[in-house]
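[09:14] KT: can someone run the structure on this one? pasting the chain below
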Amino acid sequence: MERQLKLFFKFLEEDKKVSQNTLQSYKRDLKQFRRYLEACELHYNRVKEEDIKDYIKEMQEDGKKASSISRCIASIRSFYQFVLRNKKIKEDPTAHIQSPKIEKRVPSVLTSKEVELLLNQPKDVDLKGTRDKAMLEFAYATGMRVTEIISLNIEDVNLEEGYVTCKNGNKQRNIPLGKMSLKALKEYIEEARSILIKSEEEKALFVNINGGRLTRQGFWKIIKYYKEQAHITKDITPHVLRHSFATHLLQNGADLKAIQTMLGHSDISSTQVYMQFQDEGLKDIYKKAHPRA
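[09:31] RB: done, structure tokens below
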């Protein structure tokens, strides 16, 4: 099994080009499964459906969450599909295994009025206010993850064409910027960032008051502060802005595939730049559907 696992991990990394986080998840799940097989004195290519069910039962008895068990099953299934293709087994023991039901939590979403109230809180009367306004407008305009936003460099933004290039591992996507976000971003870059940075060598798009790259925690604190200023009772995180971005686009008639592309969801798994701005159709979708475009 050790050899097959190494080949499988190599396949995931080099052929499927999964992210390091995804690869580590596969490794954790499958190494844990291998330990179970060793304890039961089972060889991987003699595992039956009943053995997989026994393993699921053990995970449940150990108090593992349904979501964790589902992920483990998905990892094991992928491994067995791989060895089946390579003719190391004749039947996939996971073929009829069903994952435990996961309660789907409805993501928290702000109304358009709540978004407007939140985004109107930062006042561009000082450097911090100008930066915060640009950042909140940007987060809602792009639907980007907080890690993606704080990882952006100044050259990732094309103010002339009105889009940002988001790089996430081997994947890259271009996301349109609405006129309100562009206006706030230009003001921040020209009037605040240029003063905040201590060196021209600083690459970060969004910087803290000391001129260094803004942290994830810093971003969360800023959102929490303005949420309280706006007297909004809902819990607001960077991910809530992301959910709101997607929901409002969908409510306003945007195509689901276009939204998935802008969000960079894992089911759109291409390493090439899959949204080019020669495609005016996608720009039009954004302009028509985004509340602040």
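[09:33] KT: thanks! The CA atoms of residues 170 and 221 lie 30 Å apart.
[09:34] RB: yep, looked fine to me
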